[in-house]
Structures are given as structure tokens and as C-alpha cells.
Amino acid sequence: MVKQLFPEAHCQNWPPTAVQPMWKTIWETNSSCLREGVFRTKCDERLVDALPPENHNAGVAFLTPKNITPEKMSCMVHLAGTGDHTFERRLWLGGPLLKNNIANMVLESPYYGQ
């Protein structure tokens, strides 16, 4: 269907492959855990090559409740907003959701650079 709506997509990597972040645990308590990961941005290689090296990777934070199976957990995805250069504000919003067994995945735009 994508190729019918966007004929130019035939020469692109569509759909993009799944990302495989490299994770590290930032902190862990009895009730929750925060992990951060880094993965290579999934845009077209020609675009990646045109970007400075700082922009080739994107970041993700994953705030999860503990002691609950993934089948019983929901997940809220927080996308980066204009001027939102860190995870802090969105993780702060996600904290209360943990009490309702809602995990929070916070994406960082790769174009902010590290």
C-alpha cells in the first residue's frame, strides 16, 4: 500500500528495518527501572552521509515498572518536541504513569546530535 501511495518509495529502504538499541541501565529501584539506548538513525544512507557524524545516532530512554510481565504492561511513546533536547521533561511526565503499569519510551531526535 505504501508503494501505491508513494511511488518514489520503491527505491528507498521501506519499511525500515527494526532498530536494535545498545542499552545501559541508568538507575533501578524496587518498583521501576530506567534504561537508555543508542541506535543508528534509520533514514536513507544518502541523507545519513550528508549529516555530521554527531547526527548518525539517535537516543532512546525506556522507563519501565518492575515486577509486571510485558503482557500486562502498556507503553506510551513520547516523541521529541521543538526545543526538547533531553529526556528529562518527558520522563518527568511519564513517572506518574508507572503507577498504572504504563512504561514510557522517550525518543530523542537524531538531529540534535551528541
Per-chain topology:
Blueprint (H helix, E strand, L loop, with lengths): L1 H4 L16 E7 L3 E9 L4 H6 L6 E9 L8 E5 L9 H7 L7 E6 L7
Parallel strand pairs: 4-5
Antiparallel strand pairs: 1-2, 2-3, 3-5
Percent of residues in helices comes to: 10-25%
- List the secondary-structure elements in sequence, H or E: HEEHEEHE
The DSSP helix count reads: 3
Distance between the termini: 36 Å
Structure description:
By secondary structure, this protein is an alpha+beta fold. A hairpin with a 3-residue loop joins strand 1 and strand 2. It has one domain. The N and C termini lie far apart (36 Å). A 5-stranded mixed β-sheet has the order 1-2-3-5-4, with helices on one face.
Using brief descriptors, characterize the structure shown.
single chain, 114 residues, alpha+beta, 3 helices, 5 strands, globular
Can you summarize this structure?
With 114 residues, the chain is α+β, with helices and mostly antiparallel strands. Helix content is 15%, strand content 32%.
